[in-house]
Amino acid sequence: MSSSGCCTSSFLLSILLAVVLVSLLIPSSATKRHVISFRSPGLYPEGLTWDPSGQHFLVGSLHSRTVHSVSDAGVVQTVISDPFLPENATILGLAVDSGDRRLLAGIHCAPPLLPCSALAAYDLRSGGRRIFLSPLPSLNNEDEVRDIANDVAVDHKGNAYVTNSAKNFIWKVDRDGLASIFSTSPLFNSQPVVPDADASFRDCGLNGIVYNSRGYLLVVQSNTGKMFKVDEETGTARLVSLDRDLVAADGMARRRRDGTVVVVSQKKLWFVKSQDSWGEGVVYDEVELDVEGFPTAVTVAEQDRVCVLYGRVMEGIMGSYKDGEEREWFEIEEVLSEKEGGDDKVWVYVLVGLGFAYFCFWRFQMKKLITNMDKKIT
After folding, report:
1. Which range is the signal sequence, renumbered to this chain (predicted)?
2. I need a surface site. Which of 38, 163, 183, 336 has the fewest CB within 10 A?
3. Alpha carbon 267 to chain centroid distance?
4. DSSP 325
């Protein structure tokens, strides 16, 4: 074979290698998700949040009156143990007040315990010392339906907002622990319950809630799939026009980077964005979740990582386990949107491949030039 033929073959081989390199670099949609497994027998956590100062997750508990930190490596430590809460009280929604280094926790007592809905505040700088426990007032004390203090959000002043999932209103608790009924908008009771609502969320109204520094809250409603925008000063609510209902919506979180809201349900995670400060919103991606894990909460960790909690709460509520065999292991899963920034990443890999191909072409031309020069000299 001539030297020219050898060079051509070498060049073609280099181009082929460049193509293979790009195909290997482009991420596959089948990439395995990162899952943090952590051991805490009988915990059955419902609430999840991220502590930016501690650089770890915080999870609540179904019956143990405790809050635990979970590291990325799955190391579990008890951050708060409050034996003065009613026995078997459930710690539901969690929110970290980063300015004051406080943890705010929604407290609920299910039957056969006496009715109790409260917000507890704990100092994360002093070993979890309780700052206050504020009972949350009811609209009608004679109502047989008990209040359910569910999810919690906090604003930049330290005010907490708590959803009442049973009676469709929002409480407000100021930074000193003074509680009041904040929003009883008639809109919260104006939307029809979805026809296929099952027992797990049929009676669950307002649920996940997030605060936006532009002066409003976003809250989702489980049994209607609707989202509302609530003014932080007046409590006035508006229905956010979405392109689909978020049926069985539970916890929600907001990313700082772009304002995207993520909403978790028992079956999927929705990525929702808005271009007009939440007059309208669009679900631009949805990710299927592990139904058996019974996901209930989502949080945004460092670097805008979206993480979902599999606390298997329904198993703990129903007691569907043998005596002495409560579940020991639970999971936190990082969830990625395949539609998010995918095109930009692909173009980066394509440019890398083209650069490599150009280098191969330049190398081929230089080798050909040197070969021709050698011939002339000879």
Report:
1. 1-30
2. 336
3. 14
4. -
